[in-house]
Design a protein that fits this description.
disordered N terminus, DUF3103, DUF3103 domain-containing protein, signal
Length: 346
């Protein structure tokens, strides 16, 4: 998804339990395209086709639901393992392959007996066409300019699950241990409201999956980055009121930190994203005063990452422990309301 002037942070790195290496590393598009072609071959069976219709509107359905003949078991296992590796996530952590009806308007055609087209969901917002497969595997080229007449079933990554696992990967690389507990609690910053002017996906994309990376200096004066997911942020120009804690000030030396908002379009490799982030921050030293970290992160990223994987949404600079305001983020795309919040010790 293209979220206005977005922030792209591709961080990959080795996990403590990194995915096992394979002979060839496939990207997400190759893996989902191969699986789409395999699933299309099964749809010549009326029982499989009827099951697909019964599952409509197909919102993040596990393709194993279509494995009536047992021929999808091995391809699905391979695809799920390859997707985890491609996204830099721990082996065996989840089943990431999902199928989704491309648009709600297609439910009627599917139930009326129209032949479904199975395709890999395009990862690039700027794509002008994509290849799908009719039942039996015959390829068909479709345009992204308009919603197709025939029902399209996308094979894609369960990005909600991937973001959750991915932020844990980043946290493992970039988050320093938290110091001892305060005597009676600590101050945090709470998001009271949040709104983005552009989180609109094209028709062939699912909901936005936004996560945040916070940056500051830890109690030892070293740069640290923490992560959090914002699964409720789906729609543009809509204000959300999550009351979510975003900064925990017992982790920081200075009363200031930055927040970078990003969105996973499916191809994000969190292991590489984590490595890039660590590399970008490694040379920033504590000079006795807080310095913003957003620019250093952006400047360190290869130009190839300023594409669809992942998208930069916006960044809010220098939020302090005492900030109690609704503020515009740097790119003009986000509006963030925050306030201090005292977290009591149990």
């Amino acid at each position: 998804m293209r979220i206005a002037p977005l922030l792209v942070l591709a961080i990959a790195g080795a996990l403590v339990t990194a995915p096992a290496a394979t002979a060839k590393t496939h990207n997400v598009s190759e893996i989902t395209d191969s699986l789409a072609r395999t699933i299309s071959a099964e749809l010549t069976d009326d029982r499989v086709r009827n099951t697909l219709v019964e599952l409509a509107p197909l919102d993040a359905v596990d393709p194993s639901s279509l494995d009536i003949n047992g021929r999808l078991t091995r391809p699905l296992a391979t695809a799920n393992a390859d997707l985890l590796a491609a996204k830099g996530l721990p082996a065996g952590a989840a089943r990431l392959a999902k199928i989704r009806l491309a648009h709600d308007s297609m439910v009627k055609q599917l139930r009326a007996g129209a032949a479904p087209v199975i395709a890999a969901a395009p990862n690039d917002d700027e794509a002008t066409k994509f290849t799908g497969y009719l039942p039996g595997g015959k390829p068909l080229t479709l345009s992204t300019a308009t919603i197709p007449v025939q029902p399209v079933v996308f094979v894609e990554v369960d990005v909600t699950t991937a973001v959750q696992l991915g932020t844990e990967v980043i946290q493992r690389y970039t988050g320093a241990p938290v110091a001892g507990r305060a005597a009676a609690g600590y101050w945090a910053t709470q998001i009271t409201s949040i709104r983005f002017g552009d989180v609109q996906e094209p028709w062939f994309k699912g909901d936005a999956e936004i996560f945040a990376i916070t940056g500051g200096f830890d109690l030892n004066g070293d740069v640290r980055a923490d992560t959090l997911t914002l699964p409720y942020l789906d729609d543009e120009d809509k204000t959300y009121y999550p009351n979510q804690l975003v900064l925990h000030w017992n982790r920081y030396k200075y009363s200031a930190a930055d927040i970078v908002f990003m969105e996973d379009d499916g191809d994000t490799n969190y292991l590489n994203l984590a490595k890039a982030l660590v590399a970008a921050l490694a040379y920033i030293l504590d000079g006795g005063a807080y310095v913003p970290l957003v620019n250093a992160i952006l400047d360190a990223l290869p130009t190839s990452w300023w594409t669809d994987d992942p998208d930069f949404v916006d960044a809010c600079y220098t939020i302090t422990r005492d900030t109690n305001a609704t503020m515009n983020c740097a790119g003009g795309n986000g509006t963030l309301g925050v306030r201090p919040f005292w977290v009591n010790e149990l």
